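[audit] Reproducing an earlier prediction to check determinism. Same input, same settings, fresh worker. If the tokens differ from the archived copy the diff job will pick it up downstream; this log only records the rerun itself.
[audit] input (435 residues):
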Amino acid sequence: MQSQAGVTENRGCLYRVPHRLREVNEKAYEPNVVSIGPYHYRKQHLMAMQVIKESFFWKIAAENNLNIVELKMTMRSLEPRIRKCYEEAPIHLHSDELLEMMLFDGCFIVQLIEGIYPVEDIFQVGRIQSDIRHDLLLLENQLPFFVLFELYRMMVPNAGEDVHHLARSALSFFKISHFPSPKTDIMHLLDLVHSCQHPSHLGIKKHEEFKANEAAATAVVQASTAVVVAAAKPNSQRSWKFIRSATELEGAGISFFGDHIEKMKDQNQGIEIMFDIMFTKDTKVLKIPTLQVNDWTESLFRNYKAYEQFFPRGKPTYFVDYVVFMDNLINTGKDVQLLCESGVIDNWLGDDEAVALMFNKLRDSIYMMSEDFYYADIFGRVNEHCKRKWNKWKAALKKDYFNTPWSLISFLAALVLLLLTLLQTIFSVLSYVKQ
């Protein structure tokens, strides 16, 4: 069902984080400075910003001659729809408190993303803007997008009925530039930002081709004999469950290359976003866009993944798949060190073991909702490479004996000496035979 603004009205779309995820790292789902919506409403450490939100509202209302009565009437007309959005975890605020919270929180967000907050405000100070931007992408810190849009239409002159302007402003606020035309069936800000985080069109096309080939191969196998089904091709669903860690893959002759997205785009490698990972048997190189790991990384990944846990079965879960991929590569700090040296990870935490622990725990209690694992093709080709013993022997030989130019020179010198000795022996034998 859609509102007149073109924003989808989804029942039960504003979720609480499942207990199995929250108990792994509760702090990752808690706002630091600002609460939005009812789930963290009036928590003690967020009360300072609550006062600021209210003062912002009254100041903007006075400066722009906003019709307070009309704003409140609009919120009251939306109350049944608002409560439906929280059906998965019902809210128990009475009507006036709920509508006041929606009004203050919604106007605060519209002011932020439209840049109409007062010049002398606190956002000129320190890191608080980053803190707020982070808090607005938490799963439990959301408002229905139709609430934001209705307030936007009443606060911004000539706003019109086009939801795309507000969506684009929101994406710009979150510093997301690589987006096509934003979707109109927006549930909340996290949903909007998440919808722009997906592989490139080329990557999705290649994945669709892989699935089609897999389906065709499986059909042939099943038509031949049921016995062979259990031993399907290396790239089948059986082969993507697991790959070795980065250091183990290096021991099998696979190297890693990482660079920033913008540089990889310029190199026409078919890599446009974080999810675009490439591996070919010819180069034996895993190309992975650089991931900056900082203080916010774990929390953002956890909230994106928690949101994907509510997707219907079959819908792509790119963040879950990406975490599974990285968790396979990273077991210890040595794996992180290798990936840092290769440009795959930009470690702002400083401690390689801390990054390894973060990825190892990110996968805890996560369900893979989609059987359509995005990196199945890469996993299959990597495993196929690793099964060939010659690749491991060649990699070990290179690492142990040809890891420096001097090693190669020494080998060549020894080889020449061996050949000369062999020739001398042959000539000696031939001279003896002639005598």
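[audit] rerun output stored. Observation attached for the diff report: The first strand starts at residue 255 and ends at 257.
[audit] end
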